[in-house]
Structure formats: C-alpha cells, structure tokens
Design a protein that fits this description.
The protein is mostly beta strands. It is 7% helix and 67% strand. The chain is built from one helix and twelve strands. Strands 1, 2, 3, 4, 5, 6, 7, 8, 9, 10, 11 and 12 form a twelve-stranded antiparallel beta sheet that branches. Strand 3 (80-94) and strand 4 form a beta hairpin. It is elongated and about 60 Å long. Residues 1-22 have low confidence and may be disordered.
Length: 232
C-alpha cells in the first residue's frame, strides 16, 4: 500500500505541474464499475483551450466545472459497459482582444458511455463517447452576454492494473465543440481550434468504497481535473 501510495503521489505531482490551467473529464477509459453496481463521483475540472470564433481570430477560453457523476455498470454479453451522467455548474472566462468576459456559474450536464473492448494481463483497452453542455452569462451596464457551449468527445485508451491500488491510464480523444456567444440580440458562433488531444491520469483505491483520481488533457486543450468516488 505504501508503494502504491507513493507512486500515486508522484503521478499526481507530475500531473499538477504539467498543466497550465476545459473538455469534460474522461477518466479511466474502461468500464470499471461492475455489473449492476452504482458509483458516485465528485469531479472538479479546470480547462484552457483555443476556440475559433466565426469572423474573428482564435481566442483562449477558460472554464471551471464542478459536477456530480453517477455511473451504472452493465454486462452486455459482448463487453462490460458503463453508463454515466453528470450534473453541476460551470463558468467561462475570456479576457483577450481588449474584452473581458467573466461569466457566472451556470448549469452543466454530461451524458456518456464507455466499454472495455479488449483485456490482457494487467491491461485493458476501452472506448467511450460523451456529450457535455454548459452555459455562463455576465451582465454589465444592463446588457447580458451569454455563452452556451456543447461538446462531443470520442475517446480510446488503455489502463494498467499491475500496480496494486494505483491504476494509471491514458489515450487519445477527439473533441468537437459547438458554441454560441449572444449579447444585445446579436450572436456569434465558435468551435474548437484543435480536435485531437491526449489524456492521461491515475486512480487510487483508498478503500473498498472510496477511490480518488487526477487527470490532465493536452494538445487540443490544457486541462486538469481531480475526483473522489464512492461505491454503493
């Protein structure tokens, strides 16, 4: 346990210092929740990514998200499957090109699924799909500006279970953003600047019912998230 904890701490420190600062948290790409079991997570996510604004240059967008996640495990006969949903709040910040947007926290939700498609000694390969939607608004001088954004992530990756309590994972993800900024009856669309990115992280089994984890996502965005899970 001490060796596993030490490995997790080292990985956690590396993850913190690799990140500069949003896509939704991916987590272990495999179906880790067993058949007919339920797991609840609390996710904290901080993201910075470039967005391509219609008729303008590329801008940076920052966001923070706090979400509660519920996951249900299924055994389909073909592959272990996990279905999950998240609900919480998110904000958006953008202070480039002489304009500063500091949005309030608005509603955020996410739906997704993932499956373990291949297993070998101490290693699993998984695939997943998730949809995220959130909004944030700011009112200045009686004028309200609102940002609405939705995102679809396709991801594939592997996890390694040969370190005891610590399970590192990583992979590739394809992220597609569809967003809109509206103010004073006018609106502008935006999308992702880069679509393909990397994700990596690690989970730590704290006890039979509690698990913690940390993750970074790079290239298409620079994001960092931590989570705490409880198994029912």
């Amino acid at each position: 346990m001490k060796k596993s904890l030490g490995v997790f701490v080292v990985l956690f420190v590396i993850l913190v210092f690799c990140t500069v600062a949003i896509s939704g948290t991916i987590g272990n790409p495999n179906a880790t929740v067993q058949n007919k079991k339920v797991v609840f997570d609390f996710d904290t996510d901080f993201t910075n990514r470039d967005i391509d604004i219609e008729g303008a240059s590329v801008h940076e967008m920052d966001s923070s998200r706090f979400l509660v996640k519920g996951t249900y495990g299924l055994e389909t006969g073909l592959a272990p499957l996990n279905l999950y949903a998240k609900l919480g709040m998110a904000n958006v910040e953008n202070d480039e090109a002489g304009y500063e947007f500091d949005g309030d926290y608005g509603m955020a939700y996410q739906l997704g699924m993932k499956a373990t498609v291949y297993e070998m000694t101490n290693m699993q390969v998984g695939l997943g799909l998730q949809y995220l939607s959130y909004s944030s608004e700011e009112t200045e001088l009686s004028v309200t500006t609102e940002i609405d954004s939705s995102e679809i992530d396709l991801y594939a990756g592997t996890s390694y279970t040969g370190l005891g309590k610590v399970v590192p994972y990583g992979g590739l993800h394809l992220s597609m953003v569809d967003g809109e900024t509206s103010s004073g009856g006018l609106s502008t669309d935006f999308e992702q600047d880069d679509s393909v990115g990397l994700f990596m992280g690690a989970d730590l089994g704290i006890s039979d019912q509690f698990r913690g984890g940390a993750e970074v996502r790079l290239v298409s965005e620079t994001s960092f998230s931590v989570n705490l899970s409880y198994l029912f």
